[in-house]
Amino acid sequence: MADIAPFSALHFDSGSVGGLENVVTQPYDKITPEMQDRYYTLSQHSLARIIRRRLEASDTDDDPYAAAAADFRRWIERGILVRDAVPALYPYEQEYGLPGQPSIRKRRRGFIGLCRLEDYSAQVVHRHEETLSGPKSDRLALLRATRAHFGQIFLLYSDPEGTVERKLAAVTGAAAPWERVDDEYGSRHEVWRVAAAPAIERIRGLMRDQKLVIADGHHRYETALAYRDQRRSSGCLDPAAEWVMATFVRMETDGLLILPTHRVVHGLNDFDWEHFLASAREFFVVEEWPGAAAGRDPARLERQLLQAGRRGPAFVACARPDRAALLALRKDVDTRSALGGAPPELARVDVFLLHGLLIERALGISREAVCEETHLHYERSVEAAVRAVDEGKADVCFLVNPTPIEAVRDNALAGQVMPQKSTDFYPKLLSGLTIYDLDGPRET
User: Which helix (H) or strand (E) holds 275?
Assistant: First the structure.
């Protein structure tokens, strides 16, 4: 049973920080060093100073997590962060332009609330991809120090008729949003408050029978589980640690957009393009584009891959010098058998095939090495992936098509886990719009 609850959110006092655009950020794992520099420049109260802390001369503690926690509590004391007087749910809408086509605008609606933490075995909250150990240890250290959640887990639920959205819209009506901010990618984020107890109870009732699928935030969800378990094992009664902050979005909305995450392979001792293609031909029809005909223009590669993907699983591989090939899955390949009896839900998913047949089998990179990112990193843009190869920073890159939402749903609910970075939901949920302070007043 899915249990959601309202909470009294901490939030920035916009009058004290000169506007939300100066202090809210992209999620911690999307903050590059360049973005961190910009966030730090924007404001001494940028949330980047909490969620992506770097030590400065003024810090009295050489522990970045302790320094972040000290700033967090100081901001509360000084009224930089203020707390809502009554518990609420927070409808959250994002209007955004398609990457590369900013004139085409879409809208994604959801709401922010608390979700009771459930082990995956309870089959209430379902993951859809594997996680990495490094980010979880980092987030756990921050959670221990601050006892707060600064970003929301992105949870999907099924509501074909849009009943929950309609109930929330009926309450907010034509009211102006409580918070409004445009991010650096041109997406507009708007948040409302719903504090009326009858409306909240109706939403809680509608959500009770839901199966929830994690879209984004696997590392933070598993960090929250780990912290909950540590608090339980310590014998300390800590009801606040039983919950995590989340944004709930219905999976049938046309506002969902999943971008591909391309794979960049580096550090191989003996990568050989011809040997790789020979291995790939066991499972794929290979169309090589030699020399200048490779057409390494990123937009062209993306178009060709998208067209091939309409016929079945396909990838583009690029290596030096100016080598590129389209790899389309052969029709006669029994993917379940080739992947060691893989479940049918996974056996036709592009990224699962890429990892099982090309990265692990053809290139000989173990699953453990993939999990530790020993030879692999990820890029959102085709340009960045190809550039890493052209500049000699990588041996080969694989361009992929987006994973369909149906594959995410079906695999998650069947208990099947795809490789990490199988999806990239766009746009991201901003961190800092609402904050769940575990030491705040109890409503759940």
Answer: helix 273-280
